[in-house]
Input
Amino acid sequence: MKPTVHILNGPNLNLLGIREPHLYGHTTLAQVQARCEALAAELGLGCVFRQSNHEGVLVDWVQEARAAGAAVIINPAGLSFRSIPLLDALKTLDLPVIEVHITNIHRRDAPYQHSVTALGATGVIAGLGPLGYELALHAVAQRLREATTA
Output
């Protein structure tokens, strides 16, 4: 069975490409999904790609990934800065967790600079636009390869 990665997206990312294009660009979430699915296949990974505007749904999906033994790439969006339930769910994962932010949160206004959920991540990629998702997939694939050879 090939390893799987769950790519989870938080609130308002369904509006990617429309909402604040000066910050987030013009790439849509559907385009990000297509790129991620193609790259995951190249890397020999199964891929589950989801988006929700609801915190509890994201927590459920993280728990599903844990039960499935899947790695997680997550863009918690606005939940990054306040969601203790999501952080607690991420902390239960044994496989790699990569948090992705399209913008460089460290250059944003103060409320957007500190990701609480990053405390549950193996690594964080921020400020590289949608390319961050692809870099996260490469990181997950590398970590999974290292785990199988250890």
Summary: Residues 4-149 form a domain with the Rossmann fold fold (CATH 3.40.50.9100). The radius of gyration is 14 Å. Residues 131-149 form the longest helix (19 residues).
